[in-house]
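Quarterly update, task 2.4: magnesium ion-bound model.
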Amino acid sequence: MAKTKGVKRTYSFGSGRAEGNKDMKELLGGKGAGLAEMSNNGIPVPAGFTITTEACTEFYAAGKRMPRGLEQEMHDALSRVESLTGKGFGDAGNPLLVSVRSGARVSMPGMMDTVLNLGLNDRTVEGLARRSGNDRFAWDSYRRFCAMFGDVVLGMKPERKEDRDPFEELLEAKKKTLGVKVDSELSVKALRELVAEFKAEIRARRKLEFPDDPFEQLRMAVSAVFRSWDNDRADAYRKLNGIPSDWGTAVTIQSMVFGNLGEDSGTGVAFTRNAATGENEFYGEFLVNAQGEDVVAGTRTPQKIGEMEARWPEMARQLEEVRTRLERHYRDMQDIEFTIERGRLYVLQTRTGKRTGLAAVRIAVEMADEKIISREEAVLRVEPESLNHVLRPIFDIAAKEAAIRAGRLLARGLPAGPGAACGRVVLFAEDAVAWKARGETVILARHETSPEDIRGMDAAAGFLTAFGGMTSHAALVARQMGKVAVVGCPVLSFDYQARTMTVATDQGPRVVREGDWISVDGLLGEVIEGKIPTQSSEVVGVLIDKTVKPAAAAMYRLFTRLLGWADGVRRLKVRANADQPDQARTAIAFGAQGIGLCRTEHMFFGEGKIGPMREMIVAENEAERRTALAKLLPLQREDFAGLFRAMGSRPVTIRTIDPPLHEFLPQDPAGQEELARATGRTLAQVQARIAELVESNPMLGNRGCRLGISYPEITEMQARAIFEAACEVAAEGVKPQPEVMIPLVGHWKELANQAKLVHEVAARVFAERKRKVKYSVGTMIEVPRGALTAGEIARTAEFFSFGTNDLTQTTFGISRDDVGTVLNAYVQKEIYSVDPFVTIDRDGVGVLMKIAIAAGRATRPGMKIGICGEHGGDPNSVEFCDALGLDYVSCSPYRLPIARLAAAQAVLKRRISERAMAKKPARKKPAKRRVVPR
Ligand code: ADP
Ligand code: MG
Ligand code: MG
């Protein structure tokens, strides 16, 4: 604070000129910068000035005292406003009134509310009355000011819901005594009395005389805005949204314009395009003869902007012109606030408008078509994650809101599978299959799901679980199958015998029975009682269901064009994690350039396969195992042939068996007995074998390549199935590209052992079939030792694929199935800034990836490297993968469009930052090129 002299703390605007501009948000706040920018561009804005955020910081540094010199600057800035408006602050003849508005860099609820009509006192009110020729207006403004000043500046606004605003109470009492219903019926006399009563109330409660001196009013209001930066509500909001506490707020002081001067005045809010659909229409509301936030307060029903034409054609024309100019200027959809005073339009605020995913796509593409922005900018405008909104069915918004208001919200959990689904509750996978066969729509609700539920999950429209995080089994399957899911709702508990699900609520337990209807919102993580109507997504209708013709699907066409532009820019290829031909077809429709991960174990749960699989597992010697495997071979071969046919000449990465064997065995006694009978064993023998195989979290025992090493005949069978299938479809004229991937390798000899087997089988099959198919053998890098010794592994591996789910689990030493129990606390205490199972941990896991890539490519230059963990569909992780120089990302089919867009944005963002770096003056040392953006 040493140098108070020379620091500029106020920035004026008005009459087509301003000292600030839109790039000064840090100093002037969003609102102040917007007003300056509009002023510079000839948009009609009432004159005023903004006190900087730095002045706010000084205020705190000085122990919550006004920085020295600020008052003088405020005086000077006010004189400028006086001369621009021809009015005087405190001048009883022609008083200038102002509003005092807060404005941080980003819009922040919890900060001080706006004070309007400041500058009124017993003398200036008379001047206002004379000048406007409207006594009622003057006194109505005065009583509003007294109440706002009391509420906002003097802190008399009730904090708790049950408390009443003292000024509201006095107003109600007055209306009651006089027998009038609405405020506008109050006489001038009544309003005069109210002003006196309001001041008395302030005197009684705050032991303070209402300040008559306008400059004193202003000083108090400005310091109240500064102080509101640090109140509890604002502080809580800042913590939640990661806003630094040293930013401070700006204060804007602006001459009042009045929307409440009669039938030729009014106030309103509008979006320059429809924020829900993106349609290029002016969308908003206005109220005649009203002030400030009357529109949002909802006390009177406003009119649609479209209706202004009929009432005020000239105003409608001016407003339309402002709309076009603001959009052209900001090159984006704007959210504006305006006031009309006696037929003159003023804009009081403009900012980039919030929008739905649907609207984001439409606005971006249409603005590019209108040449307002470039196609590259259009690609950058859409949040990749928001494409979910375009792909998924959604609930009818009004119906859902009504349901929540009616108290039908049962639970909130993690939004694991976006979309909307409603159906009847079933608790068992078998029931899901059976009910679906009867034509019912069902939601599978369970404590958690496991691989043996897979067919039931396929039959269900959605899942709901009490346990597990964003990478739990249910979440993973939901994304892969494109199902709606909410997981991790701790308030749910299950009684499988009674077939009920109980929801713990504040009002006690609520029981949902099997067969009851529920609605699951996987976009917001909400579970609602009963049926809510849904709308299906047009894009899926065209691409997947083929129920909608592209010509009739405007949204589909916009979506395809945007992604087409993205595809033209991106460097990363995209692949899908898919194991069934229909998933593969979905993946291709969504733009997959290959399969990055086929989890063969999912196939074993298919029709007729689990029997021989279990037989193989309980076998006591190799001969028995081979007999069972021989039964699996033709089934598995068919699976692969189907996949190759669907994928044509695109690469298909097939992972050999990965999960521990106990996952394939029945957990219930009945199933175990049946297995004993089928395999000619006693129940005790079967149970003993299960006990031997069971693993507990995080399942790091006999799984992955270790299984193939203990039981080489399993790998042999899978390799044979792969190559026989490849030869089969090659004979049909398809050119398959199998990539055999060995999981969980940590030592090069593990891979060498398995790769040798695979090559031997390939040679044998090709000799038998008198046909050769191009293939490769590679590995997943998913344990730290694998990453650290990748150079050695690359001698054998022809490609790498990062299995970032396991790599995260093993790097952190935390099980992804259990992480849910600590994650909330960890995120809240900022130990993890994000869930590392959702977004790649760049500083830990990312470093291992870098090591593996460098070492792998040192051994094998140009080695193909991809990622197949769930992170492959996370925009932030995709950007990281692009910077690392991976060849492709692989993700669930329904996340492919998100990955395509994110991959394009990664390239564009890098170009922008490189361009910015090139512009900076050269330093002594050449700037090191950042390989990894932070
Ligand atoms: P918020 O941050 O809550 O949007 P604002 O500072 O934008 O608060 O003020 C809310 C409303 O008050 C504005 O939309 C406008 O209607 C009214 N208002 C603010 N300043 C003025 C002014 N100088 N003249 C007329 N109305 C104003
Ligand atoms: Mg506000
Ligand atoms: Mg506003």
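Highlight for this quarter: DSSP finds 37 helices and 32 strands in the chain.
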